TrEMBL record:
GO molecular function: cytoskeletal motor activity
Assigned protein family: Belongs to the FliN/MopA/SpaO family.
Pfam families for the chain: FliMN_C (PF01052)
A Gene Ontology biological process term: chemotaxis
InterPro entries, per database record: FliN-like_C (IPR001543), FliN_T3SS_HrcQb (IPR001172), SpoA-like_sf (IPR036429)
Organism whose genome encodes this protein: Marinibacterium profundimaris
SUPFAM superfamilies reported in the protein's UniProt record: Surface presentation of antigens (SPOA)
Protein's UniProt name: Flagellar motor switch protein FliN-like C-terminal domain-containing protein
GO cellular component, one term: bacterial-type flagellum basal body
Domain Flagellar motor switch protein FliN-like C-terminal: 18-90
């Protein structure tokens, strides 16, 4: 992964694929409970993850890691809405070539 460059990335207006929406999954951590423990979980149960609150999150498109970032609260009309500030982006050209 490489650091994000300073400045804004602008979509290529001549490429028809630039307007196609994609789904990005943000992974905050993983849990590996035993099935019996998972079956005992109920409302208000707490499932511990393998990460801490201040650890970076990972952004995936499909199964490809595309970036890492930090969770933060989005400023605006909806209090508590989460956002991700990107800190690293993957060099996808290396993976495709």
């Amino acid at each position: 992964m490489t650091e994000l460059p300073d400045g804004d990335a602008r979509p290529d207006s001549h490429n028809p694929f630039s307007a196609v929406p994609i789904e990005i999954v943000v992974s905050v951590g993983k849990a590996r409970p035993l099935v019996r423990d998972l079956m005992r979980l109920g409302e208000n149960a707490v499932l511990g993850l393998d990460r801490r609150v201040e650890d970076p999150v990972e952004l995936y498109v499909g199964d490809k890691l595309v970036a890492r970032g930090e969770l933060e609260e989005l400023e605006g009309d909806v209090p508590g809405q989460l956002a991700v500030r990107l800190t690293e982006i993957a060099n996808l050209r290396d993976e495709l070539g």
